[in-house]
Amino acid sequence: MRKKIILACTDCGSRNYSSESNKALNVERLEIKKFCKTCNAHTAHKETK
Ligand SMILES: [Zn+2]
């Protein structure tokens, strides 16, 4: 089964990334450090619906 996920910045709430779940992302309470254009910095991004 494929699940579409969106990664949102935990700082500003911007939804910067989206992808389909895979092994690496198949975790609850996913949190990944990604670059946020809005914050202009690397921030924690969380899975959102
Ligand atoms: Zn941000």
Nutshell version of this structure?
With 49 residues, this protein is mainly beta.
Helix and strand layout, with pairings?
Layout: E1 4-9, E2 15-20, E3 31-36, E4 41-48
Antiparallel strand pairs: 1-2, 1-4, 3-4
The chain binds zinc ion (ZN).
Report on this model:
Belongs to the bacterial ribosomal protein bL33 family. One of its GO terms (cellular component) is cytoplasm. This is Large ribosomal subunit protein bL33. Keywords: Ribonucleoprotein, Ribosomal protein. GO terms for molecular function: structural constituent of ribosome. Strand 3 and strand 4 form a beta hairpin. The chain has one domain: Ribosomal protein L33 (Rubrerythrin, domain 2). It has a 4-stranded antiparallel sheet, with no helix packed on it. The protein has 49 residues and is mainly β. Helix content is 0%, strand content 53%. It binds zinc ion. Zinc ion binds next to loops.
CATH topology: Rubrerythrin, domain 2
Q: Level of helix content?
A: under 10%
Series of secondary-structure elements, N-terminal to C-terminal: EEEE
Please, what is the oligomeric state? Answer: single chain
In spatial order, strands of the major sheet run: 2-1-4-3
Whole-Å distance between the termini? Answer: 16 Å
From the alpha-carbon coordinates, what is the Rg to the nearest angstrom?
10 Å
CATH class: Mainly Beta
Pfam families: Ribosomal_L33 (PF00471)
GO molecular function: structural constituent of ribosome
Protein name: Large ribosomal subunit protein bL33
Family: Belongs to the bacterial ribosomal protein bL33 family.
